[in-house]
Amino acid sequence: MFKQYVNNEQFNLQINRFINDYYQEDDRANADLETIIPRLNDANSWYEAWLDFAKKREESKDYDLASVYYQAAEFYLAPADPNKEKMYQKYRETFYKGFHDFDYESYKIPYEDSYLPAVKLLTPGAKKTLLVFGGYDSYMEEMLKMMKFMKGIDYNIIVFDGPGQGTALKNGLKFIHNWEKPISSVIDYFKLDRVSIVGASWGGYLAMRAAAFEKRIDKVVAFNIFYCGLDALKNRMPDETYNGIMQLVDGNEADKVNSLFENMMANNIDLSWKITKGMENTGESTPFDLIKNFEKHTMHGIGPFINQDVLLLAGEDDQYVPISRLPQIQQELMNAASITTTVFTKETGGEQHCQAGHRELAFNEMKKFL
């Protein structure tokens, strides 16, 4: 279940995301959290608290928990901070030391002048293939961990970092909206005829975009729904503020937009993270340029091209994606072979973004759909 640990909404989401279903009943994690939670006051204390316990868990060879804590420690660090790369590498190193859920094979898929890192989880006798990817800030290792909920399905599962994600980003590949490009590269590399896909968070949009233009995809899962990139910026922002910003953007008032964001980010850790992470992902250098980039990430106009079976998962209290987008998405998927929809509420659990705190509910729906 989703737990309210602190007064900061985004802190709560990230704590539930990192701890989630795996460790909620774990005595080790619960003991650690008793000390960690009171220390979480700002980005600096967040980093220091998670790092302290990452080191302790690594020393005691609790690599699974150490990896979770290193990922949390890395979360709010600025791209220019040398500790960010150190945390990322420690996160991956401890993850693979502690990952034993599947037999797997690792790949480097050629892409442009670099590669997409991928891991293939092997299911004996499986005849089908499922491609899984994250979104704005998730790493493929985080998605790999979630695949324990999918164990036993009649699919080999390929999890990868696309452009702007994880190691692909570290190697210089920036975030893009036309996700059919990396999907097609993965399909070609493995010489596949048909695949199903799952996109998490911002990946809910990326999955839709890929399905619109890559017809070797037969089933598409939006985990969660994600209509457009600007929704993540607008949600939790007063309408008056957002509308004023977009008027300036439409008028190409770049200096005013950048100055406005500089002031807002100084007092808003959530907004500061969104913008800073976005510029890291895309390579854009200002908030104005980032917003112009985000405008490309939209389902507007592509719905009619999606003719596959579609599963839409939505959280009623999602802090990044307004639930009001759901009927619009359903309406725009006018040519889908089928549309299956599940809305998670406080009563059912899973009401948060990507069902944080109750993630098995989402994966149960995926298994039924697939």
TrEMBL record:
Gene3D superfamilies for the chain: acylaminoacyl peptidase, alpha/beta hydrolase
A GO term for molecular function: hydrolase activity
Domain AB hydrolase-1: 154-335
Residues forming coiled coils: none
Organism whose genome encodes this protein: Paenibacillus profundus
Pfam families referenced in this protein's UniProt entry, alphabetically: Abhydrolase_1
The name this protein goes by in its record: Alpha/beta hydrolase
Keywords linked to the UniProt accession: Hydrolase
